[in-house]
């Protein structure tokens, strides 16, 4: 599980912004593609997680921002099926394991080439596979949240013309960001190699987390 300093969690919780207007069930668009209610707006610069900085030193190409790429993906039925397939496949093929058990470290980010990893490793592999399928990396952002157990967690936010969606190793369902029940702390920037704050935006609680 992603390590977050207590002061970061405390700051995020203190800064919670309760989002209004989110629906309890996602609206369905054409061809079964869901529509998110609102974009997840950034609110200023944020400090990058230490383990992300270390990962970027080892794999800089995975952290570079190409501003020539689109900020949002124009979703069609074929593309949505690709996103769903990649999310489900990686959730199946990676064995969840803590960094302590995997590497003997409190927090390490990596592409899980050995079939094992924790939340941020799922995220990095999903983004890599989707980028290889032709999706713009700039529109797929590693995002830090506080989950239903009040713990730090990493998910992949995909920004689309239909809203912002979350790919999560805890569930196969791809939800609009505003329907996950998470508190949103920060995400990668779309304009530079770095991170931006999400202001501790809170979303309605999800009753259960199921695959």
Write up what this structure looks like.
By secondary structure, the protein is of the alpha+beta class. It has a single domain, classed as C8orf32 fold, CATH 3.10.620. The chain has 5 helices and 12 strands. The strands form 3 sheets. Strands 1, 4, 7, 8, 9, 10, 11 and 12 form an 8-stranded mixed sheet that branches. Helix 3 runs antiparallel to helix 5 (119-132). The longest helix is centred in the middle third of the chain and has 17 residues, at 77-93. The radius of gyration is 16 Å and the shape is globular. The two termini are 18 Å apart. The model is unreliable at 4-30 and 207-211 (pLDDT under 50).
Question: What key phrases describe this protein's structure?
Answer:
211 residues; eight-stranded mixed beta sheet; 26% helix; 26% strand; globular; disordered C terminus
């Amino acid at each position: 599980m992603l390590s977050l300093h207590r002061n970061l969690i405390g700051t995020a919780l203190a800064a919670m912004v309760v989002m209004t207007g989110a629906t309890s069930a996602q609206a369905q668009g054409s061809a079964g593609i869901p529509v998110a209610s609102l974009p997840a707006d950034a609110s200023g610069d944020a400090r990058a997680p230490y383990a992300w900085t270390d990962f970027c030193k080892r794999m800089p190409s995975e952290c570079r921002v190409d501003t020539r790429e689109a900020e949002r993906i124009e979703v069609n039925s074929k593309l949505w099926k690709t996103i769903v397939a990649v999310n489900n496949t990686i959730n199946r093929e990676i064995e969840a394991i803590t960094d302590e058990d995997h590497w003997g470290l409190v927090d390490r980010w990596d592409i899980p080439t050995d079939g094992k990893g924790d939340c941020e490793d799922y995220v990095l592999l999903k983004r890599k596979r989707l980028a290889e399928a032709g999706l713009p990396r700039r529109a797929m952002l590693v995002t830090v949240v506080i989950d239903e157990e009040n713990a730090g967690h990493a998910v992949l936010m995909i920004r689309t013309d239909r809203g912002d969606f979350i790919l999560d190793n805890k569930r196969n369902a791809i939800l609009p960001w505003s329907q996950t029940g998470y508190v949103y702390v920060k995400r990668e920037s779309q304009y530079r190699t770095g991170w931006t704050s999400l202001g501790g935006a809170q979303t309605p609680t999800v009753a259960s987390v199921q695959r």
